[in-house]
User: Which sequence fits this backbone?
Protein backbone atom coordinates (compact mmCIF):
# COMPACT_ATOMS: atom_id res chain seq x y z
CA UNK A 1 0.00 0.00 0.00
CA UNK A 2 2.78 2.42 0.90
CA UNK A 3 4.66 1.70 -2.35
CA UNK A 4 1.52 2.17 -4.44
CA UNK A 5 0.72 5.44 -2.67
CA UNK A 6 4.30 6.66 -3.07
CA UNK A 7 4.32 5.70 -6.77
CA UNK A 8 0.97 7.39 -7.32
CA UNK A 9 2.19 10.54 -5.59
CA UNK A 10 5.31 10.68 -7.75
CA UNK A 11 3.14 10.43 -10.88
CA UNK A 12 0.98 13.30 -9.66
CA UNK A 13 4.11 15.40 -9.24
CA UNK A 14 5.31 14.59 -12.75
CA UNK A 15 4.72 17.36 -15.26
CA UNK A 16 3.07 17.03 -18.62
CA UNK A 17 3.25 20.58 -20.00
CA UNK A 18 5.85 22.52 -21.89
CA UNK A 19 5.58 26.19 -20.96
CA UNK A 20 6.56 28.95 -23.37
CA UNK A 21 7.44 32.45 -22.17
CA UNK A 22 8.84 35.42 -24.05
CA UNK A 23 11.06 38.41 -23.38
CA UNK A 24 11.44 41.49 -25.54
CA UNK A 25 9.33 42.03 -28.64
CA UNK A 26 7.85 38.63 -29.50
CA UNK A 27 4.55 38.65 -31.39
CA UNK A 28 1.70 36.67 -29.88
CA UNK A 29 1.05 35.08 -33.32
CA UNK A 30 4.55 33.59 -33.20
CA UNK A 31 4.01 32.32 -29.64
CA UNK A 32 0.77 30.61 -30.67
CA UNK A 33 2.39 29.11 -33.78
CA UNK A 34 5.31 27.83 -31.67
CA UNK A 35 2.89 26.25 -29.21
CA UNK A 36 1.16 24.41 -32.07
CA UNK A 37 4.52 23.28 -33.46
CA UNK A 38 5.65 21.97 -30.04
CA UNK A 39 2.39 20.07 -29.53
CA UNK A 40 2.71 18.52 -33.01
CA UNK A 41 6.34 17.46 -32.57
CA UNK A 42 6.48 16.49 -28.88
CA UNK A 43 2.83 15.41 -28.32
CA UNK A 44 2.68 17.21 -24.97
CA UNK A 45 0.40 19.97 -23.79
CA UNK A 46 1.75 23.50 -24.24
CA UNK A 47 0.98 26.60 -22.22
CA UNK A 48 1.96 30.17 -22.99
CA UNK A 49 2.65 32.12 -19.82
CA UNK A 50 4.53 35.16 -18.60
CA UNK A 51 7.15 35.82 -15.97
CA UNK A 52 9.16 38.81 -14.85
CA UNK A 53 12.91 38.72 -14.55
CA UNK A 54 15.17 41.31 -12.91
CA UNK A 55 16.91 42.13 -16.18
CA UNK A 56 17.17 45.23 -18.33
CA UNK A 57 15.74 44.12 -21.69
CA UNK A 58 16.85 47.32 -23.41
CA UNK A 59 20.23 45.69 -23.97
CA UNK A 60 20.61 44.00 -27.34
CA UNK A 61 22.85 41.12 -26.27
CA UNK A 62 23.00 38.66 -23.37
CA UNK A 63 25.15 35.73 -22.44
CA UNK A 64 22.77 32.78 -22.89
CA UNK A 65 23.94 30.83 -19.83
CA UNK A 66 23.45 33.91 -17.62
CA UNK A 67 19.92 34.26 -18.97
CA UNK A 68 19.23 30.56 -18.33
CA UNK A 69 20.39 30.94 -14.73
CA UNK A 70 17.57 33.47 -14.23
CA UNK A 71 15.08 30.88 -15.51
CA UNK A 72 16.32 28.18 -13.10
CA UNK A 73 13.91 29.06 -10.29
CA UNK A 74 10.81 29.39 -12.48
CA UNK A 75 8.30 26.57 -12.12
CA UNK A 76 4.71 26.24 -13.27
CA UNK A 77 2.10 23.60 -12.36
CA UNK A 78 2.78 20.30 -14.17
CA UNK A 79 5.77 21.83 -16.00
CA UNK A 80 8.05 19.35 -17.73
CA UNK A 81 10.06 21.94 -19.73
CA UNK A 82 10.33 25.73 -19.99
CA UNK A 83 11.16 27.46 -23.27
CA UNK A 84 11.94 31.18 -23.46
CA UNK A 85 11.73 33.00 -26.78
CA UNK A 86 13.74 36.23 -26.77
CA UNK A 87 13.99 39.05 -29.29
CA UNK A 88 17.56 40.00 -28.39
CA UNK A 89 20.86 38.46 -29.48
CA UNK A 90 22.49 35.81 -27.28
CA UNK A 91 26.02 34.43 -27.20
CA UNK A 92 28.06 31.84 -25.34
CA UNK A 93 31.71 31.58 -24.40
CA UNK A 94 33.67 30.82 -27.58
CA UNK A 95 30.82 31.83 -29.93
CA UNK A 96 29.97 35.27 -31.33
CA UNK A 97 26.31 34.25 -31.19
CA UNK A 98 24.07 31.25 -30.69
CA UNK A 99 20.54 30.66 -31.95
CA UNK A 100 19.65 28.99 -28.68
CA UNK A 101 20.89 27.09 -25.70
CA UNK A 102 19.47 24.48 -23.33
CA UNK A 103 20.34 23.31 -19.87
CA UNK A 104 18.48 20.64 -17.90
CA UNK A 105 14.74 21.40 -18.31
CA UNK A 106 15.11 25.01 -19.56
CA UNK A 107 15.83 26.34 -23.06
CA UNK A 108 16.13 29.75 -24.67
CA UNK A 109 15.87 30.58 -28.38
CA UNK A 110 16.81 33.96 -29.82
CA UNK A 111 14.79 35.35 -32.72
CA UNK A 112 17.41 38.03 -33.39
CA UNK A 113 19.24 36.33 -36.28
CA UNK A 114 16.33 34.22 -37.56
CA UNK A 115 14.27 37.06 -39.09
CA UNK A 116 13.30 36.92 -42.76
CA UNK A 117 11.12 39.16 -44.95
CA UNK A 118 8.77 36.20 -45.52
CA UNK A 119 6.90 35.35 -42.33
CA UNK A 120 6.61 31.65 -43.18
CA UNK A 121 10.41 31.35 -43.52
CA UNK A 122 10.93 33.23 -40.25
CA UNK A 123 8.41 31.04 -38.37
CA UNK A 124 9.92 27.85 -39.85
CA UNK A 125 13.40 28.91 -38.68
CA UNK A 126 12.06 29.55 -35.19
CA UNK A 127 10.31 26.15 -35.13
CA UNK A 128 13.58 24.44 -36.07
CA UNK A 129 15.54 26.11 -33.29
CA UNK A 130 12.74 25.54 -30.76
CA UNK A 131 12.63 21.83 -31.61
CA UNK A 132 16.44 21.65 -31.53
CA UNK A 133 16.77 23.23 -28.08
CA UNK A 134 13.85 21.28 -26.61
CA UNK A 135 15.48 18.16 -28.07
CA UNK A 136 18.56 18.93 -25.97
CA UNK A 137 16.38 19.21 -22.84
CA UNK A 138 15.17 15.66 -23.52
CA UNK A 139 18.74 14.35 -23.76
CA UNK A 140 19.46 14.57 -27.49
CA UNK A 141 22.96 15.48 -28.71
CA UNK A 142 23.94 17.09 -31.99
CA UNK A 143 23.32 14.86 -35.01
CA UNK A 144 25.35 14.45 -38.21
CA UNK A 145 22.31 13.87 -40.43
CA UNK A 146 22.03 16.93 -42.67
CA UNK A 147 18.23 17.16 -42.51
CA UNK A 148 17.82 16.32 -38.81
CA UNK A 149 16.70 19.22 -36.61
CA UNK A 150 19.42 18.22 -34.12
CA UNK A 151 22.19 19.11 -36.58
CA UNK A 152 24.29 21.99 -35.23
CA UNK A 153 23.72 25.25 -37.11
CA UNK A 154 26.44 27.86 -37.27
CA UNK A 155 24.59 30.11 -39.73
CA UNK A 156 21.06 30.90 -40.87
CA UNK A 157 21.86 29.11 -44.13
CA UNK A 158 22.49 25.93 -42.13
CA UNK A 159 19.19 26.44 -40.26
CA UNK A 160 17.42 26.69 -43.62
CA UNK A 161 18.95 23.42 -44.86
CA UNK A 162 17.77 21.24 -41.99
CA UNK A 163 14.18 20.18 -41.40
CA UNK A 164 12.09 20.84 -38.29
CA UNK A 165 11.81 17.08 -37.73
CA UNK A 166 14.04 14.54 -35.98
CA UNK A 167 15.85 11.84 -37.95
CA UNK A 168 14.99 8.19 -37.26
CA UNK A 169 17.79 7.76 -34.68
CA UNK A 170 17.07 10.99 -32.79
CA UNK A 171 13.33 10.31 -32.86
CA UNK A 172 13.99 6.91 -31.29
CA UNK A 173 15.91 8.51 -28.39
CA UNK A 174 13.29 11.25 -28.04
CA UNK A 175 10.45 8.72 -27.95
CA UNK A 176 12.09 6.91 -25.03
CA UNK A 177 12.63 10.22 -23.19
CA UNK A 178 9.01 11.28 -23.72
CA UNK A 179 7.51 7.88 -22.85
CA UNK A 180 6.91 8.57 -19.12
CA UNK A 181 4.95 11.70 -19.97
CA UNK A 182 2.95 9.97 -22.70
CA UNK A 183 2.32 6.79 -20.66
CA UNK A 184 0.47 8.77 -18.03
CA UNK A 185 -1.19 11.43 -20.18
CA UNK A 186 -3.12 14.23 -18.59
CA UNK A 187 -3.42 17.81 -19.53
CA UNK A 188 -1.98 20.67 -17.51
CA UNK A 189 -5.17 21.21 -15.52
CA UNK A 190 -6.13 17.64 -14.62
CA UNK A 191 -4.84 14.70 -12.65
CA UNK A 192 -3.76 11.51 -14.47
CA UNK A 193 -6.52 9.45 -16.12
Assistant:
Amino acid sequence: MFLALYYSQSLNDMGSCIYVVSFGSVESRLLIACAKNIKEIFSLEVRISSVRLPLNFDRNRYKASDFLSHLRDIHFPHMVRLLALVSFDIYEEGFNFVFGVAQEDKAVVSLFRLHHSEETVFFERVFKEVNHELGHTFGLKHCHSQKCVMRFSNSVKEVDIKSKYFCKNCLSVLTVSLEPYRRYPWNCDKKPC
